[in-house]
Specification:
Elements lengths: L1 H8 L2 E10 L3 E8 L4 E7 L4 E7 L1 E3 L13 E10 L2 E8 L3 E8 L8 E8 L40 E7 L17 H17 L4 E5 L9 H10 L4 E8 L10 E5 L7 H11 L1 H5 L1 H4 L6 H30 L11 E3 L11 E8 L3 H8 L1 H21 L6 H7 L8 E4 L6 H8 L3 H7 L12 E4 L9
Parallel strand pairs: 1-5, 10-11, 10-12, 12-15, 13-14
Antiparallel strand pairs: 1-2, 2-9, 3-4, 4-7, 6-7, 8-9, 13-15, 16-17
Helix pairs in contact: 2-9, 7-9
The protein binds zinc ion (ZN).
Zinc ion (ZN) binds next to loops.
C-alpha cells in the first residue's frame, strides 16, 4: 500500500504542450508522464488564465507554440515548489476555460486538456449561416424548428449539404501504415474536394462542419449542420480493422434498434469513442436536457431514416463503380453523429486506412477526387428524385427539366408494404406489381420502385 501511495504522489513530467485552434475555442493539451491534480482560474485586467498543476514539473519549452490566430499572447511557467507547477497564459481577450484530464489511450499517455472558449464579441443577433463559430452550447431540442434558409425572393433556395470530416485535432482517428498519415487528414481532404464539386453545381450548396484540424464533439457536429440549414448530413471517415487485409468502402445509416451486424456494432463503438478522446463526455454534463432531448430525437428520427437509407444506397452503388465495397448494402449502426432528427444522415467509410494498399490510394488526390465524385453522384440522384419543396431542384422537376424515373423507397425497419403504399398514396396492388412482388413480405434495406401517384389524389 505504501508503495502505491508513493507512486500516486511522485511528480509527473509535463513532456510537451500541443495547441489546436477551432473557430470558437483554443485547446491546449499538456502531455504528462503520469496523473496530476490541477486547477484553473481566470484573472482580469489584464486577462490571464492560471493553471496550477500539482505533482508536476515542466520539462519542455512553452515558447515554440504557434499562437497566431489565438487569443493567447504568451505563456509563462513557474515552479512554485519542486512539485507544484504554475502556468500563466496571457490573453488579448477574455475567455471561458474548461479543463479535464484524459487517461492514456493507444496513441497518447496521460493528458491535461484546457479549452479556452472565445467569449462572444458584441451582442448583435447572429444569422444562422454565421452563428456557428460563436454560438453558445445549447442542448439539442428537437422542438426548435430547424432554421431552414428562407427562399431567396423571386428565386429558389439551394439544397444544403453538410459535409462532416470525421475526427480532427486531438482525435486523429484511425492510424495508417503510411507514415504521418491519419484518418483526420484524409477525411478533411475528401470533404473539401466534395464541397468544391457540390458548390460547382447549380441548386446545391455544401457547408463543411469542420474546416481545419481541430476537434468537434459528435453532438455539436449535428448542431452545426442544423444551424447551416442542412438538407443532408454526410460524415466522411476511413475505416480501420485489426486485420490489415480488410478492404472496401461502406455506407452507414442510423439504426433505430441495434446494429445490423457485429462489425457495425464494433465500428459504432470505436467511432463513438471519439467523444471520449475529445473529452466531450465532460463537456456534455452541462447539458441537463440531454435525456429528454434523446427521447424526442428517437421519436422524430424514423421519418428521416428511410431517406437516409435511400441516399445511402445511391452513394454506395456509385462508389461501387470506382472502388471495392466492403458490404453491398447500407449498414445500420448506432452512430452518435447520425442522430439528427429531420436531417437524413449517412456515414461514408471511404476505405480501410489500416490496409496498406487502400491507405496509399486514400492519400492520393486523384483517388480523393474520384471518391468525392461518386458520393456527389449519389447525392445528386437522391435529390433529383426527392427535391425538398421550394428548392431550385424542385422547380426543375416541376417544370419537367429532370428526367423522371420511377421513385424509389428503401425499406426501413418496422415498415410494411401497406404503410409505404399509404405514404406515397399509391395502391397496394400498384406497388406490388411495380416490384414484381408475389407477397407483401419485404426486407429492411430492400429498394422498392414506387409508381407515380394518380393525379386525382392531389388536392
Ligand atoms: Zn472515423
Amino acid at each position: 500500500m505504501a508503495a502505491l501511495a508513493v507512486e500516486v504522489f511522485a511528480a509527473s513530467d509535463v513532456r510537451s504542450v500541443r495547441l489546436w485552434r477551432a473557430p470558437d475555442n483554443t485547446r491546449l493539451v499538456f502531455d504528462l508522464s503520469g496523473p496530476v491534480q490541477h486547477s484553473v482560474f481566470t484573472l482580469s485586467a489584464p486577462d490571464r488564465i492560471v493553471i496550477d498543476v500539482g505533482g508536476a514539473k515542466l520539462v519542455t519549452q512553452l515558447d515554440q507554440l504557434a499562437l497566431s490566430n489565438t487569443p493567447i499572447t504568451g505563456m509563462r511557467s513557474a515552479q512554485r515548489t519542486p512539485e507544484d507547477l504554475r502556468v500563466v497564459i496571457d490573453l488579448s481577450a477574455p475567455v471561458s476555460p474548461k479543463s479535464f484530464t484524459l487517461a492514456p489511450n493507444a496513441q497518447y499517455g496521460h493528458r491535461l486538456v484546457v479549452d479556452l472558449f472565445d467569449q462572444e464579441a458584441g451582442a448583435a443577433p447572429s444569422l444562422p449561416t454565421t452563428a456557428v463559430a460563436t454560438a453558445p452550447q445549447v442542448p439539442v431540442t428537437p422542438t426548435q424548428a430547424p432554421p431552414k434558409l428562407a427562399p431567396v425572393p423571386g428565386g429558389k433556395r439551394a439544397i444544403v449539404i453538410a459535409i462532416d470530416a470525421g475526427h480532427g485535432g486531438e482525435d486523429p482517428g484511425a492510424l495508417s501504415p503510411v507514415k504521418g498519415q491519419f484518418e483526420k487528414h484524409v477525411t478533411l481532404a475528401i470533404a473539401k474536394e466534395l464541397q468544391r464539386q457540390i458548390n460547382a453545381e447549380k441548386g446545391f450548396r455544401a457547408e463543411l462542419v469542420r474546416t481545419g484540424d481541430y476537434f468537434i464533439p459528435l453532438r455539436k457536429r449535428t448542431e452545426i449542420a442544423r444551424k447551416k440549414g442542412a438538407d443532408l448530413f454526410v460524415s466522411i471517415h476511413a475505416d480501420a480493422a485489426p486485420r490489415a487485409a480488410a478492404f472496401g468502402a461502406s455506407v452507414y445509416a442510423l439504426s433505430d434498434r441495434g446494429a445490423t451486424s457485429e462489425t457495425a456494432r464494433w465500428l459504432a463503438d470505436s467511432e463513438n469513442q471519439s467523444d471520449l478522446i475529445g473529452g466531450a463526455g465532460n463537456v456534455s454534463l452541462d447539458d441537463k436536457d440531454r435525456m429528454l432531448a434523446g427521447v424526442l430525437l428517437d421519436l422524430s428520427m424514423t421519418a428521416s431514416l428511410s431517406s437516409s437509407l435511400n441516399v445511402g444506397q445511391k452513394v454506395l452503388s456509385n462508389m461501387g463503380r470506382i472502388t471495392p465495397l466492403h458490404k453491398r448494402r447500407v449498414e445500420q449502426a448506432g452512430f452518435m453523429v447520425l442522430k439528427s432528427p429531420d436531417i437524413p444522415s449517412i456515414l461514408v467509410e471511404t476505405g480501410f486506412i489500416s490496409n496498406p494498399n487502400e491507405a496509399r490510394k486514400l492519400a492520393s488526390a486523384s483517388h480523393q477526387q474520384t471518391l468525392a465524385r461518386s458520393i456527389h453522384s449519389g447525392v445528386r440522384q437522391f435529390f433529383q428524385q426527392n427535391p425538398p419543396p421550394g428548392t431550385y431542384l424542385a422547380w426543375l422537376r416541376d417544370n419537367g427539366k429532370i428526367p423522371q424515373g420511377p421513385r424509389e423507397h428503401v425499406v426501413g425497419s418496422g415498415e410494411s408494404l401497406a404503410l409505404i403504399a399509404q405514404r406515397y398514396q399509391v395502391s397496394l396492388a400498384a406497388l406490388r406489381s411495380a416490384n414484381g412482388l408475389r407477397s407483401d413480405v419485404i426486407k429492411v434495406g430492400q429498394t422498392l420502385q414506387v409508381p407515380t401517384a394518380a393525379l386525382a389524389v392531389q388536392p
